[in-house]
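Q: What structure does this chain adopt?
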Amino acid sequence: MHRIQNLRKRAGFEVTDRIVLSYQAPSRLRRALERFREYVMAETLCVELRESEPEGEASSAEQIEGLEARLGISRTPQR
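A:
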């Protein structure tokens, strides 16, 4: 959560911007993301969470408990 929020901040997103999050991670981190999917999406205003090549307006490689996760975010169009 913290790393996603920091990535949003570095990208200059507004607090209210909705995002699409793409990620690649080892199985242990993937399982954690899937287990807490709804919570992560709600807390980060994520409308789509997908396991794919990280892409979007901002991306980063993050160390989480000694494992590398690659994250990418993009804003969704405002409605």
